[in-house]
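Anyone able to model this chain together with BIS(adenosine)-5'-pentaphosphate?
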Amino acid sequence: MNIILLGPPGAGKGTQARRLVEEKGMEQLSTGDMLREARTSGTEMGEKVAAVMDAGQLVTDEIVIGLIEEKIKTGNPAGYIFDGFPRTLPQADALAELLSRNGAQLEAVIEIAVDDEALVDRISGRFTCGDCGEVYHDTTKPTQQEGVCDHCAGVNLKRRADDNADSLRTRLMEYYKKTSPLLGYYYANGDLKSVDGLQNIDVVAKEIEAALS
Ligand code: AP5
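re: yes, here you go
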């Protein structure tokens, strides 16, 4: 099963994608994670994307489509969770083409709907384990032991460079201008399902599960 998790920055896409990986064995393809990895690799592409990401703008379609193309070449029998991709109409068209070239198809697009006020709180309280990628929040999902990841016991907890008020404003603007039109696109295709992302993490996970069954 191949699905897209669609929603504004901080909606909970990464959090829910990790749950689906654990529960269904699907593979999470987060273009944000791939780009963060690229920027630390010292490559020319990494240097190019770092400034764009910190400013909260979108990286070019060409770069992100190339990243996804590389990943899905090998195929995954349990399917992919596209997290943060596609983000523009050309990316959506490219994904449809890539899946069909690999004999696969998209089963569902899940919109995680969250209002802007909640997003500011989520982004400002977020921290992540640099070793295993587990996502936490200062109040809604703290670690059990301060400074130690519940998932892998690593002590490399960090905050993202683009999780600040200026960058978030730009990220939201980019979302409304370039990504939210995808809701209409997938609705018209008959693929769109929406869940209320303002509920707690477990309830959102249950609603996604129901939407997929
Ligand atoms: P990316 O990494 O994709 O960031 P994003 O879309 O802005 O999404 P986030 O990762 O910020 O949020 P999320 O929805 O995953 O929420 P999370 O689960 O972490 O992209 C970063 C940048 O890379 C972009 O700005 C762009 O520059 C570039 N980029 C990436 N993909 C691109 C593409 N396709 N094209 C072009 N450029 C691209 O949760 C957030 C917080 O809330 C956490 O603390 C979590 O614990 C908490 N939380 C989650 N769910 C709940 C809940 N239900 N209740 C309470 N708290 C919750």
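The mean pLDDT is 94.
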